[in-house]
Amino acid sequence: MTIMADEHDFPQIGDEQIKLLECLSNACAVSGDEGEVRRIVLNEVRPHADEVKVDALGNVLATKRGSGEHSLRVMLAAHMDEVGLMITSDEGEGIYRFDTVGGLAATDLPGKVMWVSTEHIPAVIGIKPFHITEPDERKKPFTLDSLRLDVGPATGKIKLGDRATFATSFTQIGPSLRGKALDNRLGVATLIELIKRAPPNIDLLAAFTVQEEIGLRGARVAAFVFDPDVAIILDSTPAYDLPVWDADENVRYNTRLDAGPAIYVGDSSTLSDPRLVRFLIETAEEYKIPYQIRQPGGGGTDAGAIHKQREGIPSVSVSVPGRYNHSPASIVRLSDWQHTLNLVETALSHLTPEVLAGDR
Amino acid sequence: MTEFLPLLKELISAPGISGYEAGVRPIIENAWRPLTDQLNVSRLGSLHGLQKGIGSEPQPSIIVAAHMDAIGLMVNAIIDGFLRVTSIGGIDVRVLPGQMVTVHGREELPGMIVPTPARLLPSNEQGGVVSLEYLLVDVGLLPNEVTRLVRIGDPVSFAQPPFETGGETLVGHSLDNRAAVAALTHCLEILHSRPHIWDVWAVATVQEEITRGGAYTSAFHLRPKLAVAIDVTYGREPSSPSHLTYPMGKGPTIMRGPDIHPILYSTIIDLAERIEIPISTEPAPRSTGTDSDAMQVVAEGIPNVVIGIPLRYMHTPVEMVALKDISRAGRLVAEFIAQLDQNFMEKLSWDD
After folding, report:
1. What percentage of chain A carries pLDDT values higher than 70?
2. How far are the Cα atoms of B197, B272, B284, B333 from residue B343, in angstroms, in the given order?
3. Measured CA distances, A111 to A22, A227, B170, B301 (Å)
4. Same-fold call for B5-70+173-347 versus B72-158
5. Does this model's pTM top 0.90?
6. Where do the domains of chain B lie?
7. Using 50, 70 and 90 to split pLDDT, how confident is the model at B289?
8. Which of A30, A43, B49, B80 is geometrically suited to a Cys-Cys bond with A84, CB 3.0 to 4.6 A?
């Protein structure tokens, strides 16, 4: 199949979209407690979708029907949740123990400020002063068990089970965007844009999923409900495009910033449908949209649950590359986000049943 | 008694790593100008503010020193648009990954400290603490911009904004030792409306964290009869042993040890009891680790006393201090100075 480039009017990411991403990034939505992001999503999509509902697990399922009688049913999924902490024990005088939710490294926690609960109460994770540690001690990573949250001596607002996230405020720096949870608020913001300008040739089935970071739980039930013909998953994948310790060539970068959207061929839980991978690549090349193939290997997205739902759903993932995901902040390029939106929007508007007509 | 809070927030929002105190000094100058009769800056950059006493010649004088420099980092290499850094002052590298900083290049650049990903490290570095040489600063710019804006040797300071927590505490970077600068300012405010015989030199010293260079040279320059150092001390919290720490919010410490003249120590202890300021005695068996280490041995030698403000998580960007302890430290020093008479030095004997 060949795609013929037409005059395509790419969607533009401007101040309005960046402002929305800022709100999404600054919101706290640790897996299982996605309410703060869900409220923003509902506000944004309700005026534009034909049908919006919140399902049993808390997914936002929004449908925007195409103009045809039997349009291709295309599911787009972006997870709303982020990694974080849960308060597990009150030790008195403002000191709390906690556990991690999702893939958050204990080594990222010492010396950080966290926002606790949806009230964003600031608390610190302090450590023993340098002066009274031994050099050998400083070579041992902190264990989760050795760290505490300190909210200050007179706070009674925190309850067991409250969640906490890194207290990082979103900011734009030159060509970059820096903020917490850009994995996957970028996917959420992209999907909101796509609903606002859904192409008429498909039924767009948007799933803003919960609990991706702890086992793709929301995506699994959302795919069952939507029962789509095809699924595209929007996420953010790590860019390890940093210098190697000995300045050798970096051949294990996973993805790179400034190289465009990352198309998944295979990760630890999904082997993407090659017809969809080819279709995305051809679309990108025809419309001169930069793209990169994510280095096959570990990691995963909601596709891991979606492609195995019901009788099987042809799936592919597309990610905005992001440095330092799951840490206090990710750094991404605005241009990569723009190109990701361009690629997915252009692909959707050219997606027809013929793409999946041949054997996989 | 926390009217110094806006000043302190401003102080800990300013840069000023050791040797590069110009970012914070003007803030202190502004605060001290209405409170002092004279202000000058030493050759090394320390700020001296004089409050004239009402005694007779030869007018005795006392230094109250609080260092204004802070720990931080410095750029030592630029690789593919990323910066490598070295530390200025004692920093546990384990707090650095994910830390926000400001790189003071040709422009102020917001940066983030990040570890080299495990997959790009030598195998013996994987899974443990990433050492300082493998930490990088990402300023979010393209490599050619980074090369244009950043030079080797540029200072890097922590960017954690200050915030208050429940129970009248303040969190931020550089509370070691800007908390003591606030205490000293509070002391000047009290003495400003209180007659005192002695001349008072308030000194915001430079380079305490590395060389004590400010304390040595300002003490020599001003040649006081007595010196007080106000600094922070270890605040009690779960990660530190309780026998080395002092409860936050329960008053300052008075250090006791070879840096400190025993009669000054006992004078302050008696005074605190009389005016009902809660204090703890902090044993300092060898040295106090403050400007007193330097001031004690300047010229003919200067009798010192050291006041400690309990501070949790010292030398991290999330230091925590109780505002009450700052005002108590300032008031204690002010009361001490106010009660010094013309002949106080005659009481400082070693006749046991």
Report:
1. 98
2. 10, 21, 28, 18
3. 24, 46, 15, 39
4. no
5. yes
6. 5-70+173-347, 72-158
7. very high
8. A30
Q: In angstroms, what CA-CA distances link A293 with A261, B39, B322?
A: 8, 63, 53
The answer to whether the beta carbons of residues A21 and A189 sit under 8 Å apart is yes
For A52-55, the CB contacts below 8 A with 24+ separation are: A55/A221, A55/A222, A55/A225
AA letter at A243: P
Segments in A231-287 forming alpha helices (H): 274-286
Q: Where are the alpha helices (DSSP H) in A210-273?
A: 217-226
Chain A closest-CA separation from residue B231 CA (Å): 14
Give the Cα separation of B178 and B66 in Å (integer): 8
**Which of B80, B110, B166 has its CB closest to that of A151?**
B166
Q: Looking at chain B from residue 16 to 75, which residues have their Cβ under 8 Å from any Cβ of chain A?
A: none
Residue in A167, A269, A170 with CA at minimum distance from that of residue A216: A269
Domain ranges in chain A are 15-82+180-356, 84-166
Could you please state the CATH topology (level 3) that the domain comprising B72-158 is classified under.
Answer: Elongation Factor Tu (Ef-tu); domain 3 (2.40.30)
For B291-306, the pLDDT digits (tens) are 999 999 999 999 999 9
- Cβ-Cβ contacts under 8 Å between A and B: the total is 194
| B5/A154: higher pLDDT | B5
Q: How far is CA A138 from the centre of its chain?
A: 34
Fold of A15-82+180-356: Aminopeptidase (3.40.630)
Residue (of A303, A235, A237, A292) closest to A269 by Cα position: A303
Instruction: Count CB-CB contacts under 10 A for residue B123.
Output: 7
Helix (H, G, I), strand (E, B) or coil at A172: strand
In the block, which residue shows the tokens 């190289």? A259
Instruction: Using CB atoms, pick whichever of A126, A168, A240 lies closest to residue B320.
Output: A126
Nearest by CB to residue A153, choosing from B238, B244, B249, is: B249
Q: Phi-psi region for residue A215, left (φ > 0), alpha (ψ -120 to 50) or beta? A: left
Q: Using one digit for the tens of pLDDT, what is the confidence trace for B246-266?
A: 999 999 999 999 999 999 999
Q: Selecting from 3.40.50.300, 1.10.555.10, 3.90.226.10, 3.40.630.10, what CATH number does the domain B5-70+173-347 have?
A: 3.40.630.10
Q: Are A339 and A186 in contact (CB under 8 A)?
A: no
Q: Does A354 touch chain B (CB under 8 A)?
A: no
**Average confidence (pLDDT) over B189-218:** 97
The strand pairing partners of B169, in sequence order, are: B165, B322
- When the candidates are 3.40.1160.10, 3.40.50.2300, 2.40.30.40, 1.10.1040.10, the CATH number that belongs to A84-166 is 2.40.30.40
| C-alpha A44: how far from chain center | 17
The closest alpha carbon to B10, from B170, B128, B208, B169, belongs to: B170
Angle between helices B25-32 and B175-192 (to 10 degrees): 10
Of B264, B263, B266, residue with least CA distance to B305:
B264
| Residue B173: φ, ψ to 5° | -90, 160
Interface of A with B in 69-98 (CB under 8 A): 91, 94-95
Q: What is the mean pLDDT of residues B335-347?
A: 96
How many Å apart are CA B39 and CA B53, to the nearest integer?
Answer: 15
Tell me the C-alpha distance between B59 and B197, whole Å: 8
* DSSP for residue B88: E
Q: How far apart are CA A253 and CA A294, in angstroms?
A: 9
pLDDT attached to residue A91: 94
Confidence of residue B349 (pLDDT cuts 50, 70, 90): confident
> Phi and psi at residue A216, in whole multiples of 5°?
55, 35
